[in-house]
Design a protein that fits this description.
about 30% helix; about 500 residues; alpha/beta; 2 domains; 5-stranded parallel beta sheet; FAD/NAD(P)-binding domain; globular
Length: about 500
Amino acid sequence: MAKHTESRALRYAVIGAGMAGILAGIRLLQAGEAVTVYEKADRLGGTWRENRYPGLTCDVPAHAYTYSFEPYAEWRAYYATGGEIQGYFEKTAEKYGLMPHIRFGHEVVSCVWDEDEARWTLGFGNGGTATADVVIAASGVLHHPRMPEIPGLESFAGRAFHSARWDDAAQLDGARVGVIGNGSTGVQIVSALSQRAERLVHFQRSPQWIMPVPYFEYSEEQREAFRRDTALIDAIRYDKDYWASINRFTQAITHVDGPEIAAIEQLCLDNLETSVKDPVLREKLRPDYRAACKRLIYSWSYYDAVQRPAVFVERQRIAGIEPEGVRMADGTLHALDTLVLATGFHADRFIRPTQVLGRGGASLDDAWRVRPTAYYAIGIPDFPNFFMLNGPTGPVGNFSLIDIAERQWGYIDQLLDLLRRGETRAIAPSHAAHADYEERRIAAARTTIFGSGCASWYLDATGVPASWPWSYEAFADAMAKPVLADYEVRAAALA
């Protein structure tokens, strides 16, 4: 019997209506495919919907944090605010006709593969179900808040809340405010509130290296010029100096004794030494690990903020929380009206807690028992026709995840072509290919700056850096074309 191919009409389910889910939905619609995007919330936007805290800003230049097919002239400054980005995603989804294809209030709680039918059945929190030939998991990385385990937290008499669950009723202006955590979120909140609060205490387990960056607003005349000529936007998005900095950064994190990382460390050190005048405060803010070991903080205003009279940096250990405020190990009590928990997210969840069962009942929880992982951050053995955008082991750093997702989509789309043409009904990475990838990745990850001796959300439960450990160019090359020999293809149509 000779093998033949026949085009197939496929049904696609996209999980999540954040940046990556919007991308997948639009690209599938443009290809004339039948697609439904399932979103647990009542509004799209992902991380830009859930995070609404004062000072929220993307640390990627605004014109570089846009879809390649949808430049945007209306950014008000070099770095966009969270509200602006949320608006951009909403306008883009409307413009490209995606909104009627989004099912809001549909939290996907299960995905089960049927080998005989070569399709997935999705179960929703509202009790409904749906089927799809292909699942695109675009659920994001940082969407499960990590709550700190501090004795007495529930006893606090004021308002205490996670930064991703912002309480609009909380006292801020003229109030006593505490911020626990000093990743990008904590730094941005402190910068925004430093001239609003009567007293602002920034609680830090360890200080962060701060990379100085430029900041400026665009004038109405500049925005009008962008509207008239999108080439001016492309000149920023594709600026050779910007991309050279991205490539230098990935060279720095993968070559820990090279000149690129030395230059980053010197920039951060010079920023601390020249920006913070008080020697006592300067030492409080001096990290004891190498720059970029944790995700670098990009800020043009934090060092100014913490030197204002109303701001106090607290480095002592927190003993507990009382109704009146935060008690330190040395007995000091910081009396507070509002306590913000900028304590980050569980970065190892991805699509979980959704139950995903693949071929032969294989469980995603079992596959990820040691660490979440995917072959080139895209697919998982035994989970056919299941593809991830910004999945585990992908590049995470100080660059645009939109660009990452677009490159990943180009790779995934080539695999989808095999399904569309009827050359196979099911495709997934082989165990051997995934094992080889993970062996190489883990060995390389241990030698990156992320593995140089600090604690960060980049590390998995075993202490191995969880992100892409090679250069940006290597990622772009890998995404250019799948190595089909590394995939298992089954149930091809036969005559």
